[in-house]
Specification:
The complex is a heterodimer of chains A (about 350) and B (about 400). Chain A has about 350 residues and is an alpha/beta fold. Chain A contains 12 helices and 14 strands. In chain A, the strands form 3 sheets. In chain A, strands 6-7-8-3-9-10-12-11 form an 8-stranded mixed β-sheet, with helices on both faces. In chain A, strands 2-1-4-5 form a 4-stranded antiparallel β-sheet, covered by helices on one side. With about 400 residues, chain B is α/β, with parallel strands linked by helices. Classes of the chains: A alpha/beta (about 350), B alpha/beta (about 400). The interface between A and B is large, with 48 and 48 residues.
């Protein structure tokens, strides 16, 4: 069995604001093994980004409160000191952000930025670090890497900047790579190129990748396991095939149903999930998805725990009171998976 | 550069004799690139929209798809005359609006409305919803009470609670704010709404809600839409026609249904192939088509076909002769020397479309010359067409 890299257990993150306490992540538990890609899926405000940023200590602040634990090879991250985190960031866990232009320094050459990261952690000469930077840039598909290393971020296109980010993230061969919506800001043809790079990386190195995205197409393209988040909680997790072919939570049905398929005849009406995501200051009592769920019944006012409900799949967890048989029947809408109701609640 | 002014002849030939609602005729928009400290010098031009012709019939939706820098937004802004084209003509109900001034445009502005991509920055944060939606009504002379009643109706119509008329934009979610933008556009009873990426800032499940709303509104009010999008997934649902743009040029124009089953231009195929399929098994089974490279600089676009630098099918000729828009069955147009998904017969039956860029060559995909004016016999002879063929003849002398 592959080595366990990350073990997140009951992670809680909340922020104190003027409006009240925002429970951004409410008891998330998941793991990441060497060599696998785990996708965290959810809409804006689901807590997917906050979860992964907390692993690197990027959500710390005077108004932030943490609970639960997140261990990197047994080492606690949530309570780690700043110095401890400095050793971990870049070296053990590296991150690729959604917006490469604001994550690179505009006044330093990209090569220098990669070198700086290498030399902060390793005792190597500038020239040796430069060679490695150029090597990395070539590996992620930047043409004429030696020249381009002397360019500034604004001289790169969006896709190339994202490649620079990936090269920088890989510079210290981290065991965990976190990609937070790395392709959302890019055009589709460039997205396809970047996804190909990520796939290539997974084959070449044996790091674990946490891939945060809202796009189920991208998930199907690169993930091994899937974690679905809604309103700060994990509502379902399992292997890629389990979540796509035997989804257990109505929110997952809604997500799968609202994806447009290019290779099929489109339905007459686009299946939508009615309503809006709830406020995280005062989330609904019981199941957080209840107000938008057409299948909700009286038991849903009590919060279901995240557990295995499908007998034959012990690792496939979900948070829904319906029986597996009921779910398998209800999730089918016009011959495909979806949420049945289509009324728009404003 | 822009000497051949296109006049309005032959426009009504577009489709079955009816005058299209909106027509762009060889529209060009070049943005000057200036340098200099005291005296501005124009050193180059960004070819944002480079000779694009499209038309839209009443009640129809035209989807325009392209990646960043393809000129789709610039084209949309030309269509609502926020920008004045450098060359070419824009006609609304057959009337030339290309160079109309502010005052003359007023009545047209009421009929043509725009919905923006970013629902945050397109609503004034200091104004209440009632004011935001009511202002266009008041501007067009409606009394306060009547306007207020109308705003409530509109809110209700776009799926918002009319009680929220006194709220500020920040009190709404992204999807709701986009609904406010749509209500504002609807306020003046427009005939045409140009939607510039109306859902790309929204979550997937909310996108579907807004698209369904647009669909309903079109049925109820008989609206026409121009829908701009950066990928092919969103436009599919509502469009009757879809145009694919790349680097300021129209690459393909097709009935919406046909485009997905039968993409003719390699760029369209690449766009379709780049969208991941949300089905793990099919994803594993399918061969990925990833086109390399990035869109070239629009200041200095490549010669010939602008896509040839990235095209997997490109040959010598593609860098030399700009392909004309060839017209295949069902009015499906594509500008490519090496078309996909069409048979030999279809290729030889294809004709050169009148919408072809004036600078394009006369060489058709079959490798044969298009006979002069073979296309659209009903089209009136046009002076600029002969200009185009002259250019074409110049191009033809190049080694092929």
């Amino acid at each position: 069995m592959a080595e366990r890299l990350l073990d997140v257990e009951g992670l809680k993150v909340s922020f104190v604001t003027d409006e009240g306490v925002v429970q951004a992540v409410d008891g998330a538990s998941f793991t990441l093994d060497r060599g696998e890609v785990v996708a965290i899926v959810g809409e804006s405000g689901s807590g997917k980004s906050v979860s992964v940023m907390t692993l690197m200590g990027l959500t710390r602040g005077p108004n932030a409160r943490f609970g639960g634990s997140a261990r990197l090879r047994g080492e606690e991250l949530v309570t780690a000191t700043e110095e401890e985190l400095e050793h971990i960031r870049g070296k053990e866990i590296a991150m690729i952000f959604q917006d490469p232009i604001s994550s690179l320094s505009p006044v330093h050459r990209v090569g220098d930025q990669i070198i700086e990261q290498i030399r902060a952690h390793e005792d190597v000469s500038k020239a040796a670090a430069m060679d490695r930077a150029v090597d990395l840039m070539e590996r992620v598909g930047i043409p004429r890497a030696r020249d381009r290393a002397r360019a500034y971020p604004h001289e790169f296109s969006g896709g190339m900047r994202q490649r620079v980010m990936i090269a920088m993230a890989l510079s210290l061969s981290p065991s965990v790579l976190i990609a937070d919506e790395p392709t959302t800001a890019l055009d589709v043809t460039i997205q396809a190129q970047i996804l190909q790079e990520v796939r290539k990386l997974r084959e070449e190195s044996d790091s674990g990748v946490l891939f945060v995205t809202h796009d189920l197409g991208v998930v199907a393209d690169i993930a091994d396991r899937v974690v679905v988040m809604y309103a700060g909680q994990i509502v379902e997790q399992g292997t890629l095939d389990e979540v796509f072919y035997d989804p257990q939570h109505p929110y997952t049905w809604g997500l799968l149903g609202s994806v447009t398929r290019m290779d099929r005849e489109p339905p007459k009406r686009l299946p939508a999930i009615p309503g809006q995501p709830p406020s995280l200051v005062s989330p609904p009592e019981g199941c957080h998805f209840r107000p938008r769920c057409p299948h909700a019944f009286d038991r849903c006012t009590e919060l279901p725990s995240l557990e295995s409900r499908v007998a034959e799949a012990k690792e496939h967890l979900d948070r829904c009171w319906l029986t597996v048989a009921e779910k398998r029947e209800k999730r089918e809408v016009n011959g495909r998976i979806g949420l049945s109701s289509e009324t728009v609640v404003a | 550069m822009s000497t051949e002014a296109s006049t309005a002849e032959g426009s009504e030939a577009a489709s079955n004799g009816k005058t299209p609602l909106l027509e762009a005729d060889h529209v060009k928009l070049y943005f000057p690139v200036r340098t200099g400290v005291l005296v501005d010098r124009t050193v180059a031009h960004v070819h944002a929209v480079d000779d694009v012709s499209v038309h839209l019939n009443e009640g129809e939706t035209l989807g325009i798809v392209g990646e960043s820098g393809s000129g789709k937004t610039t084209l949309a802004r030309c269509m609502v005359r926020l920008l004045e084209p450098t060359d070419g003509a824009l006609r609304f109900r057959g009337r030339d609006i290309t160079h109309l001034g502010r005052r003359e445009l007023d009545p047209i502005r009421r009929e043509v409305q725009l919905v923006f991509q970013d629902p945050v920055s397109s609503l004034n944060p200091r104004k209440r919803v009632g004011q935001i939606i009511g202002t266009p009504l008041r501007l067009h002379g409606m009394e306060r009470d009547k306007a207020r009643r109308r705003v409530r109706e509109l809110l209700d119509r776009v799926g918002l609670n009319p009680e929220h008329i006194n709220r500020f934009p920040h009190e709404f979610s992204g999807g709701q704010r986009q609904r406010i933008g749509i209500a504002r556009a609807l306020a003046v009873d427009p005939r045409l709404i140009v939607l510039d990426e109306p859902v790309s800032a929204l979550d997937v499940s909310i996108q579907a809600q807004v698209i369904n709303l647009l669909d309903d509104l079109q049925d109820d009010f008989g609206l026409s839409y121009v829908l701009i999008a950066h990928d092919l997934s969103v436009v599919r649902h509502v469009s009757d026609w879809i145009g694919v743009m790349y680097l300021g040029k129209l690459m393909e124009l097709s009935p919406a249904k046909e485009l997905y089953a039968k993409p003719i231009h390699p760029y369209t195929e690449a766009l379709l192939g780049a969208i991941p399929i949300p089905d793990p098994e099919e994803n594993r089974a399918r061969e990925r088509l990833v086109i390399g490279g990035e869109p070239p600089n629009p200041i200095d676009p490549p010669s010939g076909c602008v896509f040839h630098t990235r095209c997997p099918r490109a040959t010598e000729i593609c860098s030399q002769v700009e392909p004309p828009l060839a017209k295949y069955a069902n009015g499906h147009l594509a500008a490519c020397h090496h078309p996909l998904s069409v048979s030999e017969d279809e290729i030889s039956a294809a004709t050169r479309s009148r919408l072809s860029p004036l600078s394009s060559g006369r060489l058709m995909p079959s490798g044969e010359e298009a006979p002069a004016a073979a296309d659209e016999i009903d089209a009136a002879p046009q002076s600029e067409e002969s200009d185009g063929s002259k250019l074409g003849q110049l191009r033809r002398r190049l080694p092929i």
